[in-house]
């Protein structure tokens, strides 16, 4: 009888420990997956970005402020270059610049790289001039990374990554473009952000020659002799 009670107590204790361990694991998973996720609904499809406030707190807070206001709804991707970037976040379909909040500090020296699928802040030459515009890297843009605290080498601050719908952005980047004023690579058929929202429930990541405009990033020219 005594041994039976001991076995029952042992079983209950083991069950309690297992429950505590499970709760700890679940809590850890919630922390890991607790990064804000924002869904972009465009007229070409939907994509989702996951943000990294631990690495780029100012950039993420700034971005979420615009999301909360619905600022990006009705804006366009005004610069699309295949195998390079898609850029948006500041112009309407009429190519009018929207009013923004004050610029934020450059957080390019945060360890994050301009790798395929990452989202980064667009800016002018001044390192601390980013406002609402952003771009999404479609290739490994190493030369956009931080190298040293010099305006020429400080780079562009990555603050998140596309975890769903990267194929939508790749398709957008392949759309035919035109030149409108000082803006190069403007899609002929506007790529419009119809709606953005902060997700309540996280989604699982998928396997995954005119003068530039003030917030335009520049792809360096290839070196070497021309062929043909």
UniProtKB/TrEMBL annotation:
Residues 203-228 are annotated as: Disordered. Its EC number is 5.2.1.8. Residues 1-28 form the signal peptide. The keyword Signal applies. This is Peptidyl-prolyl cis-trans isomerase. Keywords: Isomerase, Rotamase, Signal. Residues 45-198 form the PPIase cyclophilin-type domain. Gene3D superfamilies: Cyclophilin-like. SUPFAM superfamilies: Cyclophilin-like. It comes from Methyloradius palustris. Belongs to the cyclophilin-type PPIase family. It comes from the Bacteria. It is an enzyme of class 5 (isomerase). PROSITE patterns: CSA_PPIASE_2 (PS50072). It catalyses: [protein]-peptidylproline (omega=180) = [protein]-peptidylproline (omega=0). Residues 206-216 have a biased composition (Polar residues). GO terms for molecular function: peptidyl-prolyl cis-trans isomerase activity. PPIases accelerate the folding of proteins. It catalyzes the cis-trans isomerization of proline imidic peptide bonds in oligopeptides.
């Amino acid at each position: 009888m005594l041994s039976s009670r001991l076995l029952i107590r042992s079983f209950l204790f083991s069950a309690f420990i297992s429950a505590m361990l499970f709760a700890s694991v679940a809590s850890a998973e919630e922390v890991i997956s607790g990064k804000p996720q924002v869904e972009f609904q465009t007229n070409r499809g939907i994509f989702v970005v996951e943000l990294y406030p631990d690495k780029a707190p100012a950039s993420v807070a700034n971005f979420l402020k615009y999301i909360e206001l619905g600022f990006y709804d009705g804006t366009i991707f005004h610069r699309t270059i295949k195998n390079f970037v898609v850029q948006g976040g500041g112009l309407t379909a009429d190519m009018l610049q929207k009013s923004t909040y004050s610029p934020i500090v450059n957080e390019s020296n945060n360890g994050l790289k301009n790798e395929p699928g990452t989202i980064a802040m667009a800016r002018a030459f001044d390192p601390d001039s980013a406002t609402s515009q952003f771009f999404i890297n479609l290739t490994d843009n190493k030369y956009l990374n931080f190298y040293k605290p010099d305006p020429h080498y400080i780079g562009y601050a990555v603050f998140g990554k596309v975890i769903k719908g990267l194929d939508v952005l790749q398709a957008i980047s392949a759309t035919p473009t035109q030149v409108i004023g000082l803006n190069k690579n403007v899609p002929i058929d506007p790529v419009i952000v119809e709606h953005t929202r902060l997700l309540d429930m996280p989604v699982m990541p998928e396997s995954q020659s005119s003068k530039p405009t003030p917030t335009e990033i520049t792809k360096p020219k290839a070196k070497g002799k021309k062929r043909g």
